[in-house]
Design brief:
This protein is α/β, with parallel strands linked by helices and 202 residues long. The chain contains 9 helices and 7 strands; from the N terminus they run βααααβαββαβαβαβα. A hairpin with a 5-residue loop joins β3 and β4. It is globular.
Amino acid sequence: MNDMSIVCLDLEGVLVPEIWIAFSEASGIPELRRTTRDEPDYDKLMKWRIGILKEHGLGLRQIQDTIARIDPMPGAREFLDELRSFTQVLILSDTFTQFAGPLMKKLGMPTIFCNSLEVSESGEITGYRMRIANSKLSTVKALQSIGFETIACGDSFNDLAMIEAGKAGFLFRTTDQIRHDYPQYPAFEEYADLMAAIREVL
């Protein structure tokens, strides 16, 4: 095992489908399809989502009902199991503990650092708390400060800082726009190709 490196993976779009897109389809509210692939400003995106949920009278329970039916992307569990067999892996996500729990069980309980929702007694989502500002980049820098090399992989605007900050970084199933704007980062569509790239830099 390589104990001086940590591979930092995004969750949604890399290991599991986008939760908000799944909920958009389940609820029939097309506006909720908007994700960090479309809106780089996470605070703006979340406040907009919370407003739409309030407008439609939807809360945490309805989203969790959708999440219960979401499975990891085909091959994701196997990819993660193999990766964890030879290096340390940390999932860095801007999702929330209230969303991530059931998905982590389906992925074999990897370590995840994410945020938390503020939920009223009635189940209404009233706000959210970021674990730390610029959480992905801040976490990567903290890991580096205690002697780890980081390798990062993600698919969205909010992954670019942690990708850029590490020893190596990769895009996975990203948008054409991000691929075009950031040609310096190798972009992959298949887990086998991503795995080969990670093994090469470890």
